[in-house]
Queue: 2 jobs
Job 1
Amino acid sequence: MTSNNDILFARAQKSTPGGVNSPVRAFRSVGGTPRFITRAEGPYFWDADDRRYIDYIGSWGPAIVGHAHPDVVKAVQDAAVRGLSFGAPTEGEIQMAELICQLVPSIEQVRLVSSGTEAAMSALRLARGATGRDKIIKFEGCYHGHADSLLVKAGSGLLTFGNPTSAGVPEDFAKHTLVLDYNNPQQLVDTFKEIGDQIACVIVEPVAGNMNLLPATPEFLQTMRRVCTQYGAVLIFDEVMSGFRVALGGAQSIYDIQPDLTVLGKVIGGGLPVAAFGGHPDLMQHLAPLGGVYQAGTLSGNPVTVAAGLATLKLIQAPGFYTSLTAQTTKLVTGFTEAARAANIAFSANSVGGMFGIYFAAEKPLSYTEMMKCDTAKFNTFFHAMLDADVYLAPSAFEAGFVSAQHSDDVINATIAAATAAFAKL
Ligand code: PMP
């Protein structure tokens, strides 16, 4: 019998490029048909055949309190009744800004925007505007949204500026982006020695989640903090994914490092489009209307999305929230690892707070190069075996997974049982 997902996918491809509005959803690397989701609740979502899955995508991070949490839904409904958008300031935006500043001490002022891409792009412009420098450093494998300067891969050799990874990005933009190795502090030091006075900023995912899960070493981030201060470059932590996900104070609270700017998204919108960037007022004062760095948005600080964000940020402050989220995530990756060992599969796994990575490699990868050596064919087989068992993992070997507060012991145990059967098939 043809699945409704197949019918919808065929139909979607006629009106939408690739049938999806964000590429990884299309299942290109794992093959097969993406599920078209009709509803979600707690740790589950249902597809167009009304089949229920345990969801480990969690909307790629936002769904930390579980899908359709009654408090968040109620906040959205109440806000919607009062009006959808005003284009004039509201008290909710102040509450949101105050809460972010309270929870992330390195942020003293914050601006709300509508996507992580927009937040990272704006943070870069701010860093460039404040320093008067053009060049930026990013790290291979980190994703910061799809602003032109950030869609750049490493050039060949140290101190070679990057090449565009996307058609449509002018070489003239890419040439200002230097792409270095993640977790290589010496290379960073050498680069700063050479051209430190030309660098506007370093942008990094302190716990990388866009090349599967790869936490930074403390030494890497400490070195970054030191050289940025020494050379007057702005240190930007992109915590769109790790913020309010790995700990209440984000990765910066775990590593005890204060960046100059922080980029946030995902969890702070609780599933609606909210993102933010913030830091010290000395930097933030460069933004319009106070300063010369322009940045704006018709729907920035939207009352409905901010209501969803505030309700979510309230829930995650409950005592023990992150202890429990971390424990459930640890239980999951331990279960995966033991099941793989029993089946004699070269496999490892890792987690930080409510974020996890599974690797078809005997040891946890410590660098981008090691990550790229993971066995993607094995992952793809495993992914489909799990999907057949009603467990929805990220459809790519190079994405992190996400656990919510609604992933109970029963849900985790059902997932491990599915994984045990899936590993046996590999
Ligand atoms: N930065 C990071 C670290 C991300 O993970 C993402 C999205 N996955 C972005 C930026 C871009 O955010 P958005 O998709 O909301 O534009």
Job 2
Amino acid sequence: QPHLLGIKYITKEDIELILQTADNFKEVINRPIKKVPTLRDVTIANLFFENSTRTKISFELAEKRLSADVLNFSSGGSSVKKGESLLDTVNNILSMKVDMVVVRHSIAGTPSFLSQHIDANIVNAGDGTHEHPTQALLDAYSIREKFNSFQGLHVCIFGDIAHSRVALSNIFCLQKLGAKVAVCGPPTLIPKFLDDLGVKVFYRVKEALEWCDVANVLRIQLERQDVKYIPSLREYALYYGIHRELLDSLKKEVVIMHPGPINRGVELDSDVADSSQSIILEQVENGVAVRMAVLYLLAGNSPM
Ligand code: CP
């Protein structure tokens, strides 16, 4: 069974095929009739053991646009609260003849674990601090729309890199596509292993902004930190927030991205997030076409 467990495990050619297939689906979902019958006989379960707005809605919409039958499961309100295990939960859902599973879980490795124990295509919708592959794919799609090529493009990821699955998937994806990747944040939120991945590290926002063409800004993942070893949110906003005056002091226009949810006034000011140099809502729009492409290809359909 093919799965999408992380960007680390797929090739540059796989990524390019997904982006090209998403081009076709973006055209389809902008037609007056947005649905295609491609996954008419496929049943997909969206299993969300962790909160989500964008990813959950985007997968559901992608599945409906492909005419799949869709089951939505959230652990809140389910029998997980009565002590049922992950494997029992998933096997019970699969016994109702489910073909594909989209899973989000706070424990890294959950999608990989499921892929070894159940007979369905698994799509990782975010697992702990490990990976969020469809976010990286939609981010790459949005960058490609703006710049056409990744070759030599400078992308800097700002914020809480240590606890971010979006950062890791983006690093793998952008490097495979030929972009140069940097990160910028407080030293306590930058993991040491990035040196081995060939990622440039900045500790000063102004220097990072001067270097990059694209700034992908992340929030502080307070829910993943046992110890609050970060600056206060006020200090973070002051030293690491992306402010309008900072951007206006540059001799170029940096493209601003954010995977959401935004903590306005902390990592990103509203007059930046809502400005014409931000492509944040384009990222969300592109997520549906990219997820349609992933599901379409995993279901065994030939490249479009
Ligand atoms: N970008 C992202 O994963 O957002 P959600 O947590 O709302 O799904």
